[in-house]
Amino acid sequence: MTTKICYKCKNSLNVDNFHKQSRSPDGLSNVCKNCKRIQDKEYREQNKEKIDLKSKEYRKNNKEKIALKDKKYSEQNKEVISKKRKEYRERNKEQLAERRKQKYHSASEEEIALRKKKKKDYLKNAPEHVKQRKREYDKKYFASERGKNVLKNSLHKRRAQMLSSCDNTITLDALENLAKEQNYTCKWCNKPLNYELPKQIHLDHIIPLAKGGIHSIDNVCWSCASCNFKKSSKLPDEFIVDLNA
Ligand SMILES: [Zn+2]
Ligand SMILES: [Zn+2]
Q: Which of 163, 200, 217, 233 makes the best surface tag, with the fewest CB within 10 Å?
């Protein structure tokens, strides 16, 4: 016998079109594979809640078993999985890019801060070749139109912060006095400052402008270039002075 009539669709079909079923007299299911698929689908649709509940319970009770199975599967099918993933990414390139973009731009301020911190921490501990790559990237970036604009905006913002919080107490005399008060040393590391090399002497905001500090003589100090760079926009207690620098 090479053909069989499907109980459901009444078509006479090759036996290949029937699933095996040991209980039945001829060892085959009485509905064809196609009808079985439709039946199963209908069943799943009609019993969605029941099935969901059951599978949820099963997953809950067999967490370890499932994890083990998943692990085994992914180990045995590494290549297939990575190929599939790659294909999926290829196929959905645009949607994925859009989703990433939306996720990126819809992030809350906290998420953005965390993202920045993560990136910074990563770079701080990154191997030298990564740092070098970043420096090269920055150099190119700030030479590009977009990078130039970002830099300009940032400097503009900083200047605006400075002007808006400026109380006109930073006069030449006041700055001279400040240097004297600091014994002509760096406020942070106490190293002598070389006033013959003005580029190495930085006027540092003790509470950074970015954190609400003001541009006032009470909020500035003389600092060496190294400390100023390291302090960047940290608060004094967030900043650890490196005496060996
Ligand atoms: Zn059928
Ligand atoms: Zn210093």
A: 163
